[in-house]
Structure formats: C-alpha cells, structure tokens
Amino acid sequence: MNDVLDIAAVAAIGAIGQPLRRKEDQRLLTGQGRFTDDFSMAGQAYAVMVRSPHPHARIVRVDGVHAGRMPGVLGVFSGADCLADGLAPIPHSPVPSTRYDLKLTGPGASRSLSVPSRCCRPKRCAISAKRSRWSWPQTLPQALDAAEAVEVAYEELPWAASSEAALMPDAPAVWDEVPDNILVDTIFGVAAATDRAFSAADHVIEMDLHIGRVTGVPLEPRAALGHYDAASDRYTLYAGSGGPVRQKAELAAVLGVAPESVRVLSYDVGGNFGVRNRPYIEFGLVLWAARKLGRPVKYHRDPLGVVFLSDFQGRDLVTKVALALRADGRFLAMRADNISNVGGRCVSLSPLGKGSALVTGSYDIPAASLRSRAVFTNTMPTNAYRSSGQPRGDLCDRAADRQGRTGARVRSRRAAPQEPDRAADDALRQRGRRPLRQRHLRSQYGPRDGQRRLGTVLRRAGGRPRRAASCSDWVWRTMSSPRSGRRRNGPKSR
Q1: Which of 112, 172, 315, 490 has the most Cβ atoms closer than 10 angstroms to its Cβ?
Q2: pLDDT greater at residue 97 or residue 366
Q3: CA-to-CA distance for 221 and 216, rounded, in angstroms?
C-alpha cells in the first residue's frame, strides 16, 4: 500500500512527512508472532475461572471438594483464600489527575467514591461474568473438567444494567458502600450565567444522545502466564498489555511487594490497546497462584463469548445537550448533562473527564454549564476505547438547519480564537492551524464543492474518499495535554 501513495497529493491535503513502512507484517503473516499464549514454561499448571451467570447475586455456598479430587487438580481456591493470603485490591486510580484535567469529584464536591477492585469477592458477585472460584489442574482439559465440577449456589439479587436505571430512586445498590450508585457528580462552568443566556436566546437547539457500549475485539483473547522465582523473590507476568509499566506497579500493590519485584512482559498484543491498558483480575491471580503452588500458572483464554462479557468495555455515555443562539446565529450558551456508566467497578474515569473538557468543542461559547456524573451498574467496567469521551452529535448542523445556513458557515463564524484559551467550562484548549479548515476549503474549492473535491484528492492519493470528511478543526483531548485534530462529521464522527 505504501508504494502506491502519491506523496505530493497526500501533502496537498495536509499530511505531514511520508508514511512509515510497516516492519512487523512479515513476521506476523508467517506465524512468527509472539502472543501471550505462545509462551509456556516447564511444569506449568492451568487456571480456569468459574464465573457467575447472574448480573447480581450473593454466593450462598461453594463446593469444590469433588473438583479438588479430580485427576491432575492441584487446588481449588476462592475469594476467601485471597483474603487469607492478604491479596490487596487493584489500585486502578481511575480519576484523571494531570494538571490539564478537569477535576472530577463525588456528590457535594466530596472525593469521588469507589469500591475496592478485589481479585475475587468471597460473598457477593455484583458484575455479570464475575469469578466465583477457580481451579489449577496440570493440563487444560483437566482444568476445564474441574471447573465444571465446582458447585456454586447463588441468591439472585435485583440488578440494573443501564445508567438511567441505576439512577432511579428505587434502584438496587450495586455496592452497599454507595447506596445511590453515584460515585461522581461534578458541576462545571457557571450555571447562573448559562441560565440567563438561555432566557435571552432566540433559538434553543437540544439533543439527547446515548453513545452505546462497545467491546474490544483483540486478535488474541485475554491470557496470562505467571511465574514466581523463589531464589530472587521475583514475579514475572506474560500478558498482552497497553501499559506494562503501570501494570507492574499496580500488580506489585496487589501482591504487597516492591515494584522492582514484579516484571510484566508484553510482546504482540493484538490491538485494542484501550481495553488492555489496565490489569485484569486474572493477572494478579496467576502470579499469586504461581507462588502458592510453586510452579508457573497459565490462564488460557476463555471462550470468545466469555471474553466479550468479561473484558473491559467502552463508552456507554448518556448525554443531554442544549445550545442557545441569537437570531443572527451567534452562540450564547451551552448546557450539558453527561452520565457515564462505569460498570460494576470503577477502572477509569478518563472517558468522562475528557468528554467534560470537550463539551464546548472549538467554538466561541460565552457561557456554559455541565453536570458530569458516573454511576455503578451491574455490568463490566468501562475503560478508554478509541477516542474515548469524544462528542458524538453535532449541534452546529442542527443550528444551521434551524437558521437556513450551511454547517460550514456556522462553524467558521463561531470558532474559538487560535491562541490557547479557557473554554466556558474551564477546559484549556487550543485550535490547530490545519490546512483542512473551512476557510482553506472555501478559498480552494468554494463553499459547496469542497467535500466532493476532497474525495477526488483522496482517490488520487491512493486512499478511499471519506463520506464524513469535513472542513472543521476541533480540540482534541489527550491523556496528558491539549492538542488539536481534524474533525470528521457524520453519524460516526470521532
């Protein structure tokens, strides 16, 4: 593909430099990849998790006696064993904390609430596909047979899967520690100024959106291989990861050892780095079991359907937004309400934090108020996933339709200044100087012909025309600092 690109044509639409030739394809296409499941150690045991079939339940009884007597089974353990050995919760540290992040707080400006993310809870399963017990046989078939022999009795409890259901006054509490299910409730901006602007507005544009939940589909389903070396008192984990250095520190906290005593090795991951950024419970369990059993322990991938249920997932944001305008099209104020479904455990609030910072986009909006909430539900935790927190609706197009203008005209006249500034919700931003801005397209191709000609340029460059490519630049929020990026409008704008 790199050979057919016309570099001059690509540069004409704003590409910087030349495309980099991929180096890994030959190795991956000839079966020489090094994924987690490609690694094995002599004498390793296999771990299989017994998962709850209920979204919310109390574990009444667990009987692993029969499973423990099956051939090749080295042990059958539960959450009580983890607590007895002092396994600490995973310190996910979900609240974004760089100096550029908006500060998310709990209700009443208190510290955001959370629940310890333990490797296994001994009495209660509050999340769909939660682990109830696990076995450690010497071969994978023996492990699968032993897992089926574990008997678990559950008392089903009421559950809530959507954020709206979890916010109802009579909603069941996912955790006793958070009876109303709300762990973050923060107000940004100035509500009084926003209300005055809406009262004086000639037009009010409103949108209610639900950005649906998605799950990653990595090339390799989740797997882990844990090893403990008694001579050096050091743990080694092989696991596909988007952040092994961070996971090393977090797993060290789970095991109660110094970070120097833990090594995390990630080779080929298989994509979907967002859902692989944070450690999974199985990572801590195989390291703990490797020391307990005195041999390496491998967690082999679960069936693909279980992976879809038990991997970290993405998005699931309910947002209500309104834009106040004058008759001449000037933006007066914006009001928004974002509700993030964090699942049964809070792994990351980055999507909610970035979405809060981006709500006003790159437009000159004098007043804005935003309420950002995060709620617990009986679902898998959500994590960063492909442009997490980015806006999904376009109020500018709605405003343009209401006023009989084109979307490009509305955007160009309401853009924020080029210099770094603070948005009305106090987010630091800076618009970029991109050659695909509306002004550039209008001067080059005319106001109505820009998108068709852009598709022609892309085809000549060897790429596909993008139906949703447009001419607006916008503020792009990264994990650490603000930057700018090109916007693509449309039903699936990112």
Answers
A1: 315
A2: 366
A3: 10
Quote the CA–CA distance of 178 and 4 in Å, as a whole number.
Answer: 57
Task: Report the relative pairing of strands 73-78 and 482-488 from DSSP bridges.
Answer: unpaired
* pTM of the full structure: 0.79
Q: HEC profile for the chain?
A: CHHHCCHHHHHHCCCCCCCCCCCCHHHHHCCCCCCHHHCCCCCCEEEEEEECCCCCEEEEEEECHHHHCCCCEEEEEEHHHHHHCCCCCECCCCCCCCCCCCCCCCHHHCCCCCCCECCCCCCEECCCCCEEEEEEECCHHHHHHHHHHCEEEEEECCCCCCHHHHCCCCCCCCECCECCCEEEEEEEECHHHHHHHHHCCCEEEEEEEEEEEEECCCCCCCCEEEEEECCCCEEEEECCCCCHHHHHHHHHHHHCCCHHHEEEECCCCCCCHHHHCCCCHHHHHHHHHHHHHCCCEEECCCCHHHHHHHCCEEEEEEEEEEEEECCCCCEEEEEEEEEEEEECCCCCCHHHHHHHHCCCCCECCCEEEEEEEEEECCCCCEECCCCCCCCCCCHHHHHHHHHCCCHHHHHHHCECCCCCEECCCCCEECCCCCCCCHHHHHHHHCCCCHHHHHHHHHHHCCCCCCCCEEEEEEEEECCCCEEEEEEECCCCCC
DSSP state of 261: G
Average pLDDT for 241-264:
93
Structure tokens at 493: 């704008």
Nearest Cα to Cα of residue 403 among 288, 411, 14: 411
The predicted-structure confidence for 368-426, as pLDDT tens digits, reads as follows: 999 999 999 999 999 888 777 666 667 777 877 877 777 666 766 666 665 555 555 55
Q: Measure CA 84 to chain center.
A: 32
Both structure tokens of 43: 């004498």
Matching residue, tokens 């298989």: 270
Q: Can you tell me the mean pLDDT for 95-99?
A: 80
How far apart CA 452 and CA 5 sit, in angstroms, is 20
Extract the tokens encoding 440.
Answer: 């550039």
CATH homologous superfamily, domain 36-99+116-159+224-310: Aldehyde oxidase/xanthine dehydrogenase, a/b hammerhead (3.90.1170.50)
DSSP state of 74: E
Q: Where are the domains of the chain?
A: 36-99+116-159+224-310
pLDDT, mean over the chain: 78
